[in-house]
């Protein structure tokens, strides 16, 4: 069985570290998100990524 790709729910990145010693926690290396919630739908993750990048540009 192949593992599903996991994405950050905040920025849509695949750059996650799984940290089970912190209580089933993921940490995103790109945006700093920490939590148990992740996204496994690539299309939804792409929408999240576009929104995150647009908000990031607005802040500049």
Which features would summarize this protein structure in a list?
single chain, 60 residues, alpha+beta, N-terminal domain of TfIIb, three-stranded antiparallel sheet, 1 helix, 3 strands, flat
Rg measurement, Å = 12 Å
Strand content: 15-25%
CATH class: Mainly Beta
What is the number of independent domains?
Answer: 1
CATH topology: N-terminal domain of TfIIb
Tally of individual helices: 1
SSE succession: EEEH
Termini Cα gap: 43 Å
Report the strand count: 3
Q: If classified by CATH, what would the architecture be?
A: Single Sheet
Main sheet record: 3 strands, antiparallel
- Structural class, judged by helices and strands? alpha+beta
Shape: flat
Which runs of at least 5 residues are low in confidence (pLDDT < 50)?
Answer: none
Q: What is the overall pLDDT average?
A: 90
Q: Helical proportion?
A: 25-40%
List the helices and strands and how they pair.
Elements: E1 16-19, E2 25-28, E3 34-35, H1 42-59
Antiparallel strand pairs: 1-2, 2-3
Please provide a written account of the structure:
By secondary structure, this protein is of the alpha+beta class. The termini are far apart. The longest helix has 18 residues, at 42-59. Helix content is 30%, strand content 17%. It contains one helix and three strands, in the order E-E-E-H. The model has no long low-confidence stretch (mean pLDDT 90). It has one domain: Single Sheet (N-terminal domain of TfIIb), CATH 2.20.25. The protein has one helix spanning 42-59; strands at 16-19, 25-28, 34-35. Strand 2 and strand 3 form a beta hairpin. A three-stranded antiparallel sheet has the order 1-2-3, with no helix packed on it. It is flat and about 35 Å long.
